[in-house]
Amino acid sequence: MATLPRASKISPPTSTAIFQRPVSEFDAGLNTSAAWTAHLESGSSGGGSLSDEEPDHDSEEPLRPARALYDFEGKPEFRELTVSAGDVLEVVKEDLADGWSLVKNTDGEIGLLPRSYYTFTSDFTPAPDLELPSNSAQQSRKEASSTDDATPRGSPRSTPQPIVPQNTGEWRGGFPSFRQNLLGGKSLNRFSSFVTSGAEEFVLKGTPAETLVTPPTPAGSHNRDASDATFDEEESNRLSRLGLGEADRHFVDAGPAWKEKIPPFRVLVHSPSKRTSVLSGAYTMYSVTSLFQPASVAEQDESATEGYADPDQEPPVATPPVSPTRITVYRRFSHFVILHTALTRRLPGIALPPLPEKQYAGRFSEDFVEARRGDLERYIGKIIRHPIARYAEVVTFFLGCESDAEWKRLIPQHLAMPAAGPTFYARVFHPAFNLDAEDAQEAVERFEVHTKAVGKGVQGLRNIFGRIREARLEMSKAERLLGYSLLSLITSKPLVSAPTTGMNEDDDLYDAKSKGLLNDEGAWCWREGCRDCLKLTKAMQKASETMQSVADLYDDHARRTQLATHESLKAMAHPSSLYEPIVTTHKSTLSRYQEATREGRTDEAVAARCETVLNTTMAEMETYHTQKWEDFRTLTMEHLDGEIRFYEQVLSRLKATRRAFDPPVFDELANSRRQPSIYERELENPRLTSKPLLQPCPHVFDSAPMRPVSVAIQEGVGLLLGPSTRGSVFGKFW
């Protein structure tokens, strides 16, 4: 069953006990047993964390009422609790290792349950550090919204307010429907993302005027000045501690579209290696390399020769290309969980890609480690492609912190930062009159229809592509069988399990040499010394070996090149589910905007804040448009390039074999006797069966109600069902 990530409330751990975890033989990052044992070992004063090696120790928490969102079939050996959607629960401990919680049902049974599978029944509250601005602040904001080129927003106060249940927002029902229970990417939270992201509170209440920060705007543009011209060092440090530093200020240009602060770069996840920790047991470590490409040589040359007009002097010599700057750090899966959790809390207004599913078995097999490496590379690639998430502080820290001691010291600070909530929208700046309400209404309707159609189409494409890969395996088998049959013909040796060759192993007349089927030189002829048949036999033997080579190409192409394309398709699936919170927030904000601009009930402050949220959601739609264009263009080009390379290899082998039938190569074949083919020994035991194709692990939003399928489980079921049935069974889930 797919797991939808949910931001959890994480308290800052004490510095003296942060790394004091008892020795355990379990891997807390990937085995749920470790979540259980870690809770038992730490007692009432301990708790799990998102990192295997970094538990946080909190005081004893009271039981909190909750309700199950999905059906979950727990495994007793992992101390997991089985629940049904809608069951009443009590949360004993929310933050255990790697996304698990300790809960109790109405029967008094206690067990582990993923945090994303339940919701607290009174957990949706306004941000504790916001209050309504004064009337004078509202009046000043009205004036600023009509005269300034940007729409500035403020930051929250540090004094917490009492928690009040939140009753606003769109009601989605207390119990999930059958379709939602099978996931399909839908969030089953009974409050809409308009509420949970903080957009509603921002629209209705705004931000305190005393912390309002307005970026200086040069005349005629929306470019900001350097940060040292706006904040002094003390103010900058204060905002950084509140999570309101320069990296938390986002700008929307005309379009609307996000303004990029830093140029794009590339990240590779590579060289996985198995390591062992005394604290958490065995785990897989990945190398994460960031590549920062300098300015292109062409741009440097153009700038160097610009305005150069003296024809008697030689132009300056172009500088050699500069290799990209590389930064390599080492991260494990639980570190990616930390990154995703922090980003979800700090950037609630953008569509973040989901993390790949956890693995319960076979997590150290070579095939699974490679699949996990590819999933993590695609995940971090999506993050750094986003113009806002790219420069988030936790992202730069994740990609740039090379010291393990520094990582362990600073990561609790990132996890302890408060959720941004409405402050995220308060730190979004955009030009005035940057959108039209009617255009925004039409855009979201078209966007919603388009993403649903894209998701459905990609799902069908994934299924067809899986069948194409299976067909390539069948083609490999056919080519191999053809090669065996041709070799059986010219050597007069029977091909086992293939009676269509016309040879009968039980025929007492079968003796190739005694009956004149082959002469002394191994030629396919009854005459001794026949040079013509010797040339023909050797050329046909070469053709049979080429067919075996082509069969190997078909097999390798399906298992490697086409698997990579199949994996890439998974990353483009379910855009509707990924952007559903954006669409919901956009529609709800439009409703608030129409109320605020209704004749006779105009509220300019609310309308201005609605415009900020709408600029954010429209910028997200534009980001999807850009990435969709890049993704499908790259995918199609890479697929065509792979097919061209494959067929060129096949063609080159066929052409080389064809030349063996033309003089002078054909004539030279008569100069020596025929040597046995390396494939003759396989005629008695032909390689006509192959191991099942590896399939991409299911997408988080795939509707299959199942855990991630490991390589070990796939192979086990394949042995039970047989190779022919396995493809059709598991093909339903890709």
TrEMBL record:
Residues 61-123 form the SH3 domain. Keywords: SH3 domain. Residues 299-313 have a biased composition (Acidic residues). Gene3D superfamilies: Arfaptin homology (AH) domain/BAR domain, Phox-like domain, SH3 Domains. InterPro entries: AH/BAR_dom_sf, PX_dom, PX_dom_sf, SH3-like_dom_sf, SH3_domain, Sorting_nexin_WASP-bd-dom. GO terms for cellular component: cytoplasmic vesicle; plasma membrane. Residues 39-67, 128-176, 211-232, 297-321 are annotated as: Disordered. Residues 264-405 form the PX domain. Pfam families: BAR_3_WASP_bdg (PF10456), PX (PF00787), SH3_9 (PF14604). This is WASP-binding domain of Sorting nexin protein. The lineage of its organism: Eukaryota, Fungi, Dikarya, Basidiomycota, Agaricomycotina.
